[in-house]
């Protein structure tokens, strides 16, 4: 194999050395961005329990249903922050994919301004029947609600 020269420097060995040095430097640098957040400086971390297959609330109301519940809370988000009186407020929800539906009620917004979270109760009409659940939804970096906890409410 013949190497070409340019002003007394062989190009192939120089290019190979440059490539190896560049790959080494690139491999040593790490850049990470939090998933689901566009705020790189101070990302918001929503905490909650990890759902398991034994969790009755998660097996009845899956992640898609929880997203629908959060979207419905987002739809009235401005009303929730403007008014502390949510007594008697009910909000129906329907997941057309799973067929599950329910009604949000007992929305408590007392900590919404300080923590960005609110508590609620919801009924859920699922394939296993109709049950009452208690939950918490918190706002993330984009000011959208996400259901952080959901459990079967005691009757």
Explained architecture:
By secondary structure, the protein is an alpha+beta fold. It contains five helices and seven strands. The chain has a five-stranded antiparallel sheet with strand order 3-4-5-6-7. The longest helix has 18 residues, at 11-28. The protein is elongated, with a radius of gyration of 26 Å. The mean pLDDT is 75.
How would you describe this structure in keywords?
elongated, two-stranded antiparallel sheet, single chain, alpha+beta, 155 residues, five-stranded antiparallel sheet, 7 strands, 5 helices
Write the layout of secondary structure elements.
Blueprint: E1 5-6, E2 9-10, H1 11-28, H2 56-60, H3 63-75, H4 77-82, E3 91-94, E4 101-108, H5 112-115, E5 117-126, E6 129-139, E7 145-152
Antiparallel strand pairs: 1-2, 3-4, 4-5, 5-6, 6-7
Main sheet: strands, sense, barrel: 5 strands, antiparallel
Rough outline? elongated
For the biggest β-sheet, the strand order reads: 3-4-5-6-7
Total E-strand runs: 7
Rounded mean pLDDT is 75
Helix content: 25-40%
Instruction: Identify low-pLDDT runs.
Output: none
Global structural class: alpha+beta
The fraction of residues in strands falls at 25-35%
**End-to-end separation:** 83 Å
What sequence of helices (H) and strands (E) makes up the elements?
EEHHHHEEHEEE
Radius of gyration: 26 Å
In DSSP terms (H or I, runs of 4 or more residues), the helix count works out at 5
């Amino acid at each position: 194999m013949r190497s070409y020269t340019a002003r007394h420097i062989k190009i192939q060995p120089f290019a190979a050395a440059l490539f190896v040095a560049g790959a080494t430097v690139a491999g040593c640098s790490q850049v990470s961005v939090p998933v689901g957040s566009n705020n790189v400086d101070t990302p918001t971390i929503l905490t909650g329990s990890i759902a398991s297959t034994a969790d009755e609330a998660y097996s009845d109301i899956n992640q898609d249903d929880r997203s629908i519940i959060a979207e419905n809370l987002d739809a009235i988000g401005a009303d929730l922050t403007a008014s502390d009186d949510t007594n008697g407020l009910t909000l129906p929800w329907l997941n057309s994919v799973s067929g599950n539906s329910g009604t949000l009620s007992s929305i408590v917004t007392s900590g919404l301004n300080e923590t960005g979270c609110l508590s609620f109760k919801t009924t859920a009409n699922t394939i296993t029947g109709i049950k009452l659940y208690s939950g918490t939804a918190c706002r993330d970096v984009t000011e959208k609600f996400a259901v952080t906890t959901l459990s079967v409410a005691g009757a």
